[in-house]
Amino acid sequence: MPKQVINNVAGATPPLPVFSHAVISNGHVYVSGSIGSDEEYNIVGGVQQQARAALDNMKAILEGAGSGLEHIVKVTVYLTNMVRDFGIFNEVYAEMWERCLRGRALVLRPCPWEQFVEVECIAELAPGDEE
To answer: Which residues, in sequence order, are bridge partners of residue 106?
Structure first.
């Protein structure tokens, strides 16, 4: 089955020219990394605000691709500071999903600017939206 590139999703920060918002392949949506920025790529606030912006952006991309948060299989979270950021990020993350747990990985990585959070995910297409 051919891959479908998802770009320019309404309500999502536009992707940079070197990648797409997401790719649909074999009934799954692979969402590119979302950072905590506004639509003009300005980093917003601290960890809590960035986490919320990144997760809201990921949600908009999923919905634009015919999926949604409820169809996520796995989330990868990138943080710059485990001690400072982990608990704060988890509080915001828990607001998105009450008790429905997903697979998740955490990667610690440095960043040259005040970007503290990035998230990406793999989700299934909503039933009836399969390729």
So the answer is: 77
Distances, alpha carbon 69 to alpha carbons 12, 34, 73, 85, in Å: 15, 14, 9, 22
List, in order of start, the domains of the chain with CATH numbers.
Answer: 4-124 (3.30.1330.40)
Q: pLDDT, tens digit, for every residue of 58-106? A: 999 999 999 999 999 999 999 999 999 999 999 999 988 776 678 999 9
Mark 93-111 as b/e (b = at least 16 C-beta within 10 Å).
Answer: beebeeeeebeeeeeeeee
Residue with structure tokens 């949604």?
68
Pick from 112, 114, 121: which is nearest to 93 by CA? Answer: 121
In this structure, what token pair is assigned to residue 114?
A: 């005040």
Q: How many Å is the Cα radius of gyration of the chain?
A: 14
Neighbouring C-alpha atoms within 13 Å toward the C-beta of 129? 18
Cα–Cα distance, 53 to 50 (Å, whole number): 5
Q: Please check whether residue 100 is in contact with residue 73, taking contact to mean a CB–CB distance below 8 angstroms.
A: no
